[in-house]
Write a structure and sequence with these properties.
With about 500 residues, this protein is of the alpha/beta class. The protein contains 16 helices and 8 strands. The strands form 2 sheets. Strands 2-1-3-4 form a 4-stranded mixed β-sheet, with helices on both faces.
Length: about 500
């Protein structure tokens, strides 16, 4: 009998010793969180088998007020606030967002598995005291939240506002999507009233309470409740109610500020695109052909203007089409981010190529530069000029040449044009101004052609123009490189 008891006891102790450790954790998610699948039960089961431990998880949907409150309280206890979803509390650690979880979750699980597991995170109990606002104030406090669906800082704020609505029944909260023209004007008018600095206007993830405001990382429960205390007895006015004069003034302010901030970049892009080697070579050949054809100076000027109109029209239509098409999708956060990353990376790569071309051009290795039209397209362009300019109507022929040449050389000049279009799309302002900027870009794009025509009219021959282009090619390539790097970094960040 004693022998049987010893065997049973041995088996029990053996099973107990090899029983996998248990790791318990809290996971805060939302049904509309696309990143939360990384921490779904099936993924936890796979990890538990890999590490040889038992993972027990409690899931909390933060759309429910009690769960959101628990999240806030735990974050304050752990001194780690404003985490992106999903949020995982495990032992002494807090992991917020897909990136943190991918980088650290498995390591932490292994750490606690070696320590024979970990119990549920220490719970924070609700304090017994309650504020007047929790009991329900009759005095209304108006809160305006200005957001953009592409802004990742806005995501967490939506849940926070949902929590505040339930906790403080006296709050009247309205969301303003900054993709809409009217909402931009409302933001500007409010900013003018409460003296928000110009460099902080039209920024998504801005919360305005009375004459106070919070932006992006500063938007958290503690800061909001500190502001609410200021208005708990008096309430606040409805900040988004504007008269006609305020609305019109705000609209004018936005246009003026937008132009002053962005106009130089767009005009500079058009100018350096107009003098890049691809476009310049075409212009010199065009002038050279007209000279050989023994056209008078007045005729060259007239034909040149017709050519310019053809170039301008096609480039503007291409840009307007791309701008209109892409603007339909920029309110989709994922599309907008992917577009910025792709164009930004392309711009950075072009920046390196342009800088490499700058070094080669400075040493005189003109034929070795990378960013230029392929020889086959150059031949096609020259052939088009010769054939079409032999038409009886030279003016119509020049216009037709401008149209065809613009399409053929777009593979080269579009390297600057498309990043500029995406740059304009990223500005939180009116669509009409976007088209105005495309107009300015193309006006500056054809300005070198106008200068060449003027020089030709004054007696400068094509040989001198070619020498000028070759001499200044390194500077042009360096400017192109700086432009690509600047736009690329801007789009990526």
């Amino acid at each position: 009998m004693g022998r049987k008891i010893e065997v049973i006891l041995f088996i029990f102790l053996f099973n107990f010793s090899v029983c996998p450790s248990t790791i318990r954790l809290y996971i805060f998610t939302s049904p509309d969180c696309s990143h939360c699948r990384i921490i779904y039960p099936e993924n936890l089961n796979q990890l538990s088998k890999k590490v040889n431990c038992k993972i027990e998880a409690k899931y909390f949907d933060i759309n429910q007020i009690e769960n959101y409150k628990k999240l806030i309280e735990l974050e304050e206890r752990y001194k780690d606030t404003d985490n992106e979803l999903p949020v995982v509390f495990i032992g002494e650690y807090v992991l917020g967002g897909e990136k943190e979880i991918k980088e650290n979750f498995e390591r932490i699980i292994k750490e606690y598995a070696q320590k024979n597991g970990i119990d549920w995170p220490e719970q924070v109990y609700r304090t017994s005291s309650s504020t007047e606002s929790e009991k329900g104030e009759k005095v209304p406090i108006y809160i305006g939240f200005f957001c953009d669906l592409r802004c990742k800082e806005c995501d967490r704020v939506f849940y926070l506002l949902n929590y505040l609505k339930k906790k403080y029944p006296n709050l009247i909260i309205k969301e303003f999507n900054l993709k809409e023209r009217e909402n931009k004007i409302i933001f500007e008018a409010i900013a003018e009233k409460i003296k928000i600095p110009e460099n902080k206007r039209l920024i998504p993830a801005t919360l305005i309470i009375g004459s106070d405001y919070l932006q992006q990382k500063d938007i958290n429960l503690k800061n909001i409740e500190n502001i609410l205390k200021k208005y708990e007895k008096t309430g606040s006015i409805c900040i988004w109610e504007l008269n006609k004069e305020e609305f019109e003034k705000a609209a004018k302010n936005i246009v003026a500020r937008f132009k002053s901030f962005r106009i130089f970049t767009v005009c500079f892009a058009g100018l350096i695109d107009g003098v890049n080697p691809c476009a310049f070579a075409v212009l010199v050949f065009f002038i050279s052909f007209l000279t050989i054809a023994k056209k008078k100076r007045e005729e060259i000027l007239l034909i040149g203007f017709s050519f310019m109109i053809g170039v301008f029209l096609i480039y503007f239509l291409i840009g307007a089409g791309a701008f209109s098409f892409l603007s339909q999708f920029t309110h989709y956060k994922v599309f907008s981010r992917v577009l910025n990353i792709l164009v930004g990376l392309v711009a950075i790569i072009l920046g390196f190529f342009s800088f490499s071309d700058f070094l080669k051009a400075r040493k005189g290795y003109i034929k070795q530069i990378k960013l230029q039209l392929p020889k086959s397209i150059k031949t096609k362009i020259n052939s088009t000029i010769i054939k079409k300019m032999n038409l009886s109507n030279y003016i119509f022929g020049a216009f037709l040449v401008g149209v065809i040449v613009s399409i053929l050389e777009f593979s080269c000049t579009g390297q600057v044009y498309l990043p500029t279009i995406v740059f304009v799309l990223n500005q939180l302002d009116f669509k009409k101004i976007g088209y105005f900027y495309l107009f300015l870009y193309n006006l500056f794009f054809i300005s070198p052609l106008f200068i060449i025509l003027l020089l030709s009219y004054l007696g400068t021959n094509s040989q001198k123009l070619s020498q000028f282009a070759s001499k200044n090619l390194p500077i042009i390539k360096l400017l192109l490189s700086l432009f690509f790097f600047s736009v690329g970094i801007y789009l990526l960040l």
